[in-house]
Amino acid sequence: MNALKTYLRKPITAAIVGGMALAVPATLALPLAPAHAQSQVQANQLDRAANALRSITTLRADFTQTDRNGGSLSGELTLKNPGKIRFEYSDDVNLLVVSNGSALTFVDYEVNQVERYPIGDSPLGALLDPNRDIRRYGTLQRASGGVVSIQVQDPNRPEFPQLTLIFQENASAPGGLELVSWVALDSQNQRTTVRLRNHRYGMSVSDSEFRFRDPRRASRRPG
Prior knowledge:
By secondary structure, the protein is of the alpha+beta class. The protein has 4 helices and 11 strands. It is globular, with a radius of gyration of 17 Å.
């Protein structure tokens, strides 16, 4: 649990949250470098990745989150574009991470604590708003063997985490690419990996799923 808080909070406390925000999708363009410095092939792959995220209306997937020491947590991710995401952990983990499209909130039911961060520009926004953030921060790392890997980082803000988004070719996924994992590496070299499986797209998802019961008023975790 602490690994997730570290991986998400640090960029946020630095004024970020970006706006993982699973932060998550206009076109993906090459970052900061002149257009002629990047090949057309690279540009096309970046556009494909951006389109894949942008094409998701709703998504549910099982996730497993692993820290650098091998500690693992699991649960279900729910995404609704634009900007809404929910990490629902297994019943033995009294933590909820949720974005309603305007703020990312960490709810710790174990200590009845709520921390909320506004969604703004940051690499984490690659998961929440690629329309804005991947365009600014994304660079192509790999496009071969059916895998497309995009690194998301703000070179001017080293305190923000580096995210690597990994897509797999999948004709049945929106845009023909499926987000299968991402890796977050913070300035203290703390690495967190999130893997997704059992993707389900296009179902009806109520906005109420991106709300939460405030444990400061009621100690019972919502069902």
